[in-house]
Amino acid sequence: MAERPTGHEVPTGDEGGAAPSTRLGGSPPPEPSHAERCRTLVASASRGALATLAADPQGYPYGSVASYGLDDRGNPLLFVSLMAEHTQNAIRDARASLLVTEPVPDGADPLASGRATLLGLLSTVAEDDRPAARDRYLEANPASAYYIDFGDFTFYRLGVQSIRYVGGYGRMSWVDAAAYAEAEPDPLAAAAAGIIEHMNADHAESQVLFCRHLVERPDTTEAIMSAVDRYGFDMIAVGPAGRAAVRLGFPDECTTGEQVRQAMIALVADARAAAARARR
Predict the structure, then answer these.
(1) Which of 144, 160, 182 is the C-terminal boundary of a domain?
(2) Dihedral-angle region of residue 74 (phi above 0 means left; psi in -120 to 50 means alpha; beta otherwise)
(3) 76 belongs to a structural domain
(4) Which of 81, 72, 116, 79 has the alpha carbon at shortest distance from 97?
(5) Where is pLDDT greater, at 7 or 48?
(6) Residue 29 is assigned to a structural domain of this protein
(7) 252 & 145 share domain
(8) Closest C-alpha among 117, 50, 126 to residue 88
(9) pTM
(10) What percent of the chain shows pLDDT beyond 70?
(11) Are residues 172 and 263 in the same domain?
(12) End-of-domain residue from the set 122, 155, 182
């Protein structure tokens, strides 16, 4: 089999570089693996673009919108009409993929947001597994309660065999299906948007301090938090030389919003102490 291309990488310096800065005097900050990032992305959504292989015209990719839940290994569970084109395609050829994307904030570059394409085989859910699949699908799609017991619908599972992950510019890879299945969604995923909004609205000065005194960005004039996870957070540092992606790790892994708050207090204390030393 031919080697898969690694993709178009972006330089790691200023103006959009994706590699995080190293904290002064320490090792590179911890961050989620691509398997963890994929699992979090897919678990945070409940709808994607399903591609099956059409019978007529034969062999062409057929795209449709599909809602899903997830089983314990992160395989999408689809509740589909037996009359739907994608279901008929799956009956003839089980090969399929599901594209899931992160929400794109207003005015943001859609290509800077994360997306994952799960490739695998579609198969009907066994009768013994149907109650669990029903519960998982309803949990992710409560509005489906009114048709969940329709007789002309059935549950399909996309057995994931490979994943292509793109986390924005310069962050991409093929992800091992076993690593994806074993990964856990980030516990801060549901709270991340609120944390980011709060930090950017109320603690912008602290983020500038982080960049100036905890990473190698002493000329930072503005800093914007762009992502947060259990291990740390990403910022865009702005200065005379341009923009750069930087990352700081938390002192300890955070699984709740309160733990993030305490970690930020500790980092502010570190940054202020470093600033005081710099003035001496």
Answers:
(1) 182
(2) left
(3) yes
(4) 116
(5) 48
(6) no
(7) no
(8) 50
(9) 0.84
(10) 90
(11) no
(12) 182
Task: Compute the distance between CA of residue 177 and CA of residue 280 in angstroms, rounded to an integer.
Answer: 53
First to last CA, the chain: 61
Q: Do residues 61 and 154 share a domain?
A: yes
Q: CA 28, 33, 38, 40 torsion: positive or negative?
A: negative
204: which residues sit within 8 A by CB, 6+ positions away?
Answer: 222, 223, 224
Q: Are residues 160 and 196 in the same domain?
A: no
Output the CA–CA distances (angstroms, integers) from residue 46 to 117, 139, 164, 253, in the order listed.
14, 10, 18, 27
Q: Which residue carries 């570089």 as its tokens?
A: 17
Would 9 be classed as within a structural domain?
Answer: no
Residue 88, domain member (yes or no): yes
Contact 246, 211 (CB under 8 A): yes
Q: Are residues 219 and 252 in the same domain?
A: yes
Cβ–Cβ < 8 Å for 163, 120: no
In angstroms, rounded to a whole number, what is the distance separating the alpha carbons of residues 246 and 234? 6
pLDDT category, 269, cuts 50, 70, 90?
very high
DSSP β-bridge partners for residue 101 = 115
Structure tokens that stand for 48 in this block = 């994607």
CATH number at residue 207: 3.20.180.10
What single-letter DSSP state applies at residue 3? P
Q: Which domain holds residue 94?
A: 37-182
**pLDDT at position 81:** 94
Quote the CA–CA distance of 277 and 37 in Å, as a whole number: 37
**Vertex 181: Cα angle to 176 and 184 (nearest 5):** 115
